[in-house]
């Protein structure tokens, strides 16, 4: 008889029902947390009008949220690896709901930093990709791991696609403040995922270590080994660029569109289109990681981003152009996650994956902080977003190049590793 603490999916790892239950739980949780966070940019103008703080000050709260979302993930991953994924997700979902619900009551920069940056973003980090991807890798068979990470990642995109129109509709019906609070309530639908994904990878690693007579790596040893691996550092550097790009678009694309003289609704639909086409990109990338070299796929994605931004700057700013640009960005938006997570698992195994992918996500969110903050600061100083786009193109070219020397193989490991 299976242990009562063993997740249903872990009892029979190859069972189709168990597999889809895991994917539904992880993708659904990511859809709700990511979808809520990615629609916050729609409320930036309303927050500015309500508080009078200025775009720069409000962008600081969003930027801090990007950074804090990343800072929480290595720690949340380490706790999930050892204590259990379910408890971490439970707390994370509750904090996202609380932070989102109280945001309309905040009238100072410090209050917005607390609600958006600490509570909502921190909770989303706890119930974010490092914990969800690691739980999925632990609970599904190896042969399905690439596609499974693509499905989970697509969940975040589906959340953005669905939540943006919901936010627009609720704002029109009940006002921006009540709309934001309803989004906070909707996040609570992710709570059942805490039960489905419960368990931890260190228990499995300990069993493997006992069977082989070896010793599993501690969290400190795992991080030290990863940071000493050049390929891991290159991967983190490239993911920093991804964070810059994603956070700038999520926070400021509605403002970019408004600056072009287009209707505000185009901004909301652009975010929805990004979410829709990111589903295509995520599923396609989940399929591709099992067939082509992951570092080559990442280089291609970053190169396409840079070229798309350049084309957007040169093209006339019509609704059709904006939506096509959003579609192209959607295909590349978060499709970097499956190959990045896949490389971490391929290089270091799953025993400390939540922790090590969390460190890479921290790099991503340092870039996210810069993208969200510089977007508002540059616009406030120059009245235009052009210089941020120029920086983005240069960074995309650098990211395309930095992935080329990555070695897709296990680095030399001490005999103590049981991964």
Protein described:
With 419 residues, the chain is mainly alpha-helical. It has one domain: Growth Hormone, Chain: A, CATH 1.20.1250. The protein contains 19 helices and no strands. Helix 5 runs antiparallel to helix 6 (109-126), helix 5 runs antiparallel to helix 9 (176-187) and helix 15 packs antiparallel against helix 19 (386-402). The longest helix has 30 residues, at 145-174. The protein is globular. The chain starts with 7 loop residues before the first helix and ends in a 17-residue tail after the last helix. The relative contact order is 0.17. The model is unreliable at 1-16, 208-213 and 414-419 (pLDDT under 50).
Structural class designation: mainly alpha
Write down how many β-strands occur, each being a DSSP E stretch of 2 or more residues.
0
CATH topology: Growth Hormone, Chain: A
Largest sheet data: none
Order of helices and strands: HHHHHHHHHHHHHHHHHHH
Oligomer: single chain
At the fourth level of CATH, the homologous superfamily is: MFS general substrate transporter like domains
State the domain count.
Answer: 1
Percent of sequence in beta strands:
under 5%
Classified by CATH, the class is Mainly Alpha
- As a whole number of angstroms, the C-alpha radius of gyration is 20 Å
Please, what is the average pLDDT? 80
């Amino acid at each position: 008889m299976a242990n009562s603490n063993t997740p249903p999916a872990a009892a029979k790892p190859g069972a189709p029902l168990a597999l889809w239950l895991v994917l539904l739980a992880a993708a659904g949780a990511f859809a709700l947390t990511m979808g809520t966070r990615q629609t916050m940019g729609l409320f930036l103008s309303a927050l500015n009008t309500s508080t009078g703080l200025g775009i720069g000050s409000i962008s600081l709260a969003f930027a801090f949220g990007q950074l804090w979302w990343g800072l929480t993930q290595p720690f949340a991953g380490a706790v999930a690896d050892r204590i259990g994924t379910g408890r971490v997700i439970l707390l994370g979902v509750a904090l996202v709901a609380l932070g989102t619900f109280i945001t309309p009551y905040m009238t100072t920069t410090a209050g917005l930093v607390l609600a958006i940056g600490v509570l909502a973003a921190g909770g989303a980090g706890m119930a974010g990709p490092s914990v969800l991807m690691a739980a999925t890798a632990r609970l599904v068979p190896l042969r399905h791991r690439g596609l499974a990470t693509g499905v989970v990642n697509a969940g975040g995109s589906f959340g953005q696609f669905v939540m943006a129109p919901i936010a627009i509709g609720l704002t029109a019906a009940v006002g921006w403040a009540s709309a934001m609070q309803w989004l906070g309530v909707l996040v609570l639908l992710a709570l059942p995922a805490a039960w489905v994904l419960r368990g931890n990878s260190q228990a499995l690693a300990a069993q493997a270590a006992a069977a082989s007579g070896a010793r599993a790596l501690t969290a400190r040893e795992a991080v030290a080994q990863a940071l000493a691996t050049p390929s891991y550092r290159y991967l983190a550097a490239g993911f920093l660029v991804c964070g810059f790009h994603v956070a700038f678009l999520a926070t400021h694309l509605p403002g970019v569109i408004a600056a072009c003289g287009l209707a505000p609704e185009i901004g909301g639909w652009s975010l929805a289109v990004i979410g829709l086409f990111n589903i295509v990109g995520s599923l396609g990338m989940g399929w591709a990681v099992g067939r082509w070299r992951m570092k080559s796929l990442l280089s291609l994605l970053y190169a396409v981003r840079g070229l798309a931004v350049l084309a957007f700057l040169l093209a006339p700013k019509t609704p059709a152009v904006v939506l096509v640009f959003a579609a192209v960005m959607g295909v590349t938006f978060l499709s970097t996650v499956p190959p990045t997570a896949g490389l971490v698992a391929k290089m270091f195994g799953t025993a400390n994956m939540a922790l090590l992918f969390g460190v890479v996500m921290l790099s991503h969110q340092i870039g996210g902080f810069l993208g969200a903050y510089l977007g508002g600061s540059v616009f406030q100083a120059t009245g235009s977003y052009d210089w941020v786009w120029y920086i983005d193109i240069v960074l995309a070219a650098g990211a395309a190049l930095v992935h080329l020397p990555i070695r897709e193989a296990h680095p030399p490991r001490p005999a103590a590793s049981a991964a």
